[in-house]
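Agenda item 2: zinc ion complex prediction
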Amino acid sequence: MTLRRISVAVLMAASIAPVAEAYLKFAVTVDGSVVTPRWSRTPVRYFVNDAGVPEVSGVDLQAAVSRAARSWEDVATSAIAFEFGGFTGAGPVDEDGITTVGFQSRPDLPGVLGATELTIDVATGALVEADIFLNSQFVWSVSPGGRSDRFDVESIVLHELGHLLGLSHSGIGETETASDGRRVIAAGAVMFPIAFSPGSVDGRRLQRDDVAGASDLYPDRGFSQATGSLSGRVVSDGRGVLGAHVLAFHLESGVLVGGFTINGQGEFAIAGLDPGPHVIRVEPIDDADVDSFFGEDDRIDTGFRAGYLDTLVFVRQGGHAGPVEIRVNPR
Ligand SMILES: [Zn+2]
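Presented output:
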């Protein structure tokens, strides 16, 4: 079995330079075709490192992981299931075949609150191991209402479990520039790559974009029948745009679900849309680093002006709308 290890991090706001997206799945190339890594069977069995940090014991950590796991399991249109295997002394990022969550001191990663490392069987795209660490260089809390100046364990673990399942980052969020970097003022997705400020527990609840992403990866009976999907292309000057953030806004409910164009043809696909009329907006990534969504080698196009599809899209229950073509203009 040939394995590949990839790593994704959640950043504290201050370390972020300018960039945005909706839910995004990881992609690996297997025999020349692109597949999304996912667990081939559930429940996903995980272990928790028993070493705590000040104010958060190993038992506290396990309870927070368990609550975050339940939030993903509670997605009605998804078949996700987790199983706690027990406590372990194994380090959270050892590549040992055991999926482990734990604290780790990483002074070498000053802006990184936590990260997930995925081990993928490159022959099949199956996930075989995933490890999550929270950086003990920061101060943490599991207090039910949050603690000022401390980061919330459950919120960050909820985000990292999304990576563990195979989700990449979502672009649904807004930041503003602060004296020390960027601050999140609204996140429409737990998978937005920048964390809320210390003290906040706003990241404990999955949003509709997260639900759509999780259900797209692990659909339960009823997901594709209950919702609809949309596909299409984003083009500028007749050429496909890579890395454009595409947002579908439901006109009646206001629910926002997003996706990205993922190749040089500018193609995108979004699943998990409620039936009804949608406005489709396209924008360049602008509220986080491009690197937090795509690999550094990808040539992401941010040199265009935000625009809209010139017609409404009507999504039917169980139906597929499109393909649509959205034209944008260079900046
Ligand atoms: Zn992340």
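Discussion summary: The first strand starts at residue 3 and ends at 11.
Owner for follow-up: CH.
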